[in-house]
Design a protein that fits this description.
Strand content: 5-15%
Strand order of the largest sheet: 1-3-2-6-7-11-10
Number of helices: 14
Distance between the termini: 36 Å
Radius of gyration: 22 Å
């Protein structure tokens, strides 16, 4: 498939007022179901033509090919329904890489990163055995591109677990968000400063839109069409494509048998506490008292539910936070070590090297962001 395609329609229509944005705003709203909220309240900018909306699909290794093509395909249908006189859409599949192979071994024809009104981030396979930290570390170029787009005022959209890329870019802190119900707890653990809404299909908050699992990309696309071309076109597209445009929640789709087994709530509470207190000295006795169990019981229950110790989890979280600080701030290595709970920079450097394969200074040289913004005081 070509990296760029143009979709047009028949009648003048207003610019999209919800997800599209080329300048930021402090106004927020949460969109439930198919996105019937009032949008972000952001300015829509000028676009690439007479009201034409520029959509970029961010392709990366292993992304779901169907999520790369799903939104453009529905927009193509919208163009046919609206007719040749409408402002339409210009869709590009973009990447910071020259070559991208998506899921199923599908080779994608990609364009270089470019200015767009909306950047859509597809999801990827996230199974029980996936090392999510390792997976995300391989996507540093894409995460940097997401962060740069947000700085430029581009509206960001994630499909399904694409939300984890937005979270890694620091964009979900302080925002409402959603993702697949199957992975909502993990997203909430990684974003203790955010507000994950696992019951919603589509959530838009301050220029950032997140969606539930897989087919929720169509809920988002229909909302985009509704805002750009009006409800008549969106309704007609839903009928032509046999897509349900009346869904309001992902709750009816939840299968409790697929959720983590009962009892993981304990380890999740412990992990959340550790993640929110990364800079505090690790004290097993104090941690046990916090959760009103003995140290032996805490270690046993935590190991049964996670297969590791609380200290191992804390070390992983501290390294993840340190990576973020090394990439995005000018703090010294010693200051970064202190920020994540290590008074001895040497101990921190040894741990960091063991987890990432690079000493902190070498990691910063390799992954330092060109466009840096001040790091938040807390969060992953």
């Amino acid at each position: 498939m070509a990296g760029t395609s143009r979709v047009t329609g028949t009648r003048p229509a207003p610019r999209a007022q919800g997800v599209t944005s080329t300048s930021t705003s402090t106004s927020t709203s949460t969109s439930t179901g198919t996105g019937t909220g009032t949008g972000t309240g952001t300015s829509t900018g000028t676009g690439a033509g007479q009201g034409e909306l520029r959509i970029g699909i961010l392709a990366y290794p292993g992304c779901f090919a169907s999520e790369v093509f799903g939104v453009p395909d529905l927009l193509t249908m919208a163009g046919h329904v609206a007719g040749p006189g409408a402002p339409g859409y210009r869709v590009s599949i973009v990447s910071p890489r020259r070559r991208v192979t998506a899921s199923g071994g599908v080779n994608l024809d990609v364009c270089p990163l470019r200015e767009v009104d909306v950047l859509v981030v597809p999801g990827f396979e996230l199974g029980p055995d996936t090392d999510l930290d390792a997976r995300l570390s391989l996507l540093s170029p894409e995460i940097a591109a997401i962060r740069t787009a947000a700085t430029a005022g581009t509206a960001l959209v994630s499909l399904c677990v694409g939300a984890f890329l937005l979270a890694e870019a620091g964009l979900l802190a302080g925002r409402r968000s959603t993702t697949s119900w199957l992975h909502a707890d993990e997203l909430a653990r990684r974003c203790p400063d955010g507000d994950v809404r696992p019951e919603h299909l589509v959530v838009t908050d301050a220029g950032v839109t997140t969606t539930a699992a897989f087919s929720a990309m169509y809920d988002f696309a229909l909302d985009l069409i509704r805002r750009h071309d009006g409800p008549r076109v969106a309704r007609a597209v839903a009928r032509v494509a046999l897509v349900d445009d009346a869904r309001t929640s992902q709750t009816p789709y939840v299968d409790p048998g697929l959720l983590p087994r009962p009892g993981r709530e304990f380890s999740q509470r412990v992990m959340r506490h550790l993640d929110q207190n990364l800079a505090e000295r690790y004290d097993l006795t104090a941690l046990s008292e916090t959760f009103r169990v003995s140290a032996r019981t805490l270690l046993r229950r935590f190991a049964e539910e996670t297969g590791q110790s609380p200290l191992a989890h804390l070390q992983t979280s501290r390294v993840r936070r340190a990576r973020h600080l090394l990439e995005s701030t000018d703090r010294t290595v010693a200051a970064v070590a202190t920020a994540v709970g290590y008074r001895d920079p040497g101990t921190f450097a040894a741990l960091f090297t063991r987890h990432t394969g690079r000493p902190p200074s070498a990691y910063r040289a390799a992954f330092r962001r060109t466009h840096r913004s001040p790091a938040p005081d807390s969060g992953g």
